[in-house]
Write a sequence for this structure.
């Protein structure tokens, strides 16, 4: 294959379309049906603006010759090399912003999982590290050549020594991969301690750790990044970078929105996509209204009682126990309003008294 562009256009366009569809689904189910829009939802909503700009940069690379062998580009369009290098510099800064935003979306979502002090400390530590590492990467890119113009006009500054590719590429990669691993591991201790069946626990783990797909994508990126740093066939390797960058960004967005897609489907099946109607979606197994909750600990424990001050769920007796929905759906139902005077409210108050 001498031209990677048809494949690149197909892959990045398909992934972009899927990712863009999942964002309004999340906005609708969280903001309209459940009326529980939170900070992580605002962060994801911003992707409606930022993701198309990222996609435009990828199309720019393909239009300028990414995915075509370097000798062909130099023989037919040598003038595009400066444009490609300018675009690459812009993409370095913008890609870091996209990674920061998507990872922060996952981390903000984790605040619903537990109020335990140790978990919150760990979560805030990862967020602080994520912010600091993002700033450090931007500084690295800003200082990689002095003056920075030498990055895209090397012929004008023959004596300038820029930071080596190994540092410029693999230091940011390592910092981002560390945050990916934290996102994968951070919620596991909380989920493992939940009192629920193994099947439901695995379902929760699958949804909450969906962001771990970034670790797999990161492994693939390392292979391509090494080729990009060492290969003399610059434009051909850049075509591969276009594909893996789209996979990383779009799959991260899709993974972050998967629980909302499931909640949207459940509301749609019951005709409850209207304003506030998602709060009273019936349990698919019992036909009863889903158990609402006032905290993430209550949702995860599927218990009818409020959480204790330490964040652990207070379990009530079997007679007061409420019908539960699938835990990964309940995570998206924060906050739920309980119908006044309903059997649910009476059961909840009974459970609170017994606790």
């Amino acid at each position: 294959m001498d031209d990677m562009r048809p494949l690149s256009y197909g892959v990045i366009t398909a992934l972009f379309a899927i990712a863009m569809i999942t964002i309004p689904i999340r906005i609708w189910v969280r903001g309209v049906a459940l009326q529980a829009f939170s900070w992580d939802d605002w962060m994801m909503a911003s992707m409606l603006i930022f993701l198309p700009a990222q996609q435009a940069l990828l199309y720019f690379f393909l239009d300028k010759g990414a995915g075509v062998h370097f000798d062909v580009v130099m023989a037919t369009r040598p003038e595009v090399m400066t444009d490609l290098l300018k675009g690459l510099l812009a993409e370095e800064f913008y890609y870091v912003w996209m990674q920061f935003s998507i990872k922060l979306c996952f981390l903000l979502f984790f605040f619903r999982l537990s109020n335990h002090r140790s978990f919150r400390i760990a979560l805030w530590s990862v967020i602080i590290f994520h912010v600091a590492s993002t700033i450090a990467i931007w500084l690295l890119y800003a200082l990689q050549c002095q003056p920075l113009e030498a990055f895209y006009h090397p012929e004008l500054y023959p004596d300038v020594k820029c930071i080596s590719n190994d540092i410029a590429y693999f230091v940011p990669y390592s910092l981002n991969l560390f945050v990916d691993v934290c996102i994968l591991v951070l919620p596991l201790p909380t989920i493992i301690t939940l009192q629920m069946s193994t099947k439901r626990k695995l379902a929760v783990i699958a949804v909450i750790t969906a962001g771990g797909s970034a670790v797999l994508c990161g492994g693939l990126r390392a292979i391509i990044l090494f080729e990009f740093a060492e290969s003399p066939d610059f434009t051909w390797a850049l075509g591969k970078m276009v594909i893996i960058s789209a996979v990383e960004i779009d799959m991260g967005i899709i993974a972050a929105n998967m629980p909302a897609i499931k909640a949207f489907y459940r509301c749609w099946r019951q005709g409850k996509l209207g304003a506030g109607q998602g709060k009273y979606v019936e349990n698919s197994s019992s036909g009863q209204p889903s158990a609402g909750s006032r905290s993430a600990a209550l949702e995860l424990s599927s218990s009818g009682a409020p959480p204790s001050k330490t964040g652990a769920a207070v379990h009530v007796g079997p007679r007061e126990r409420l019908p539960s929905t699938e835990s990964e759906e309940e995570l998206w139902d924060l906050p739920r309003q309980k119908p006044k005077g309903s059997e649910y409210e009476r059961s909840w108050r009974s459970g609170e008294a017994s606790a």
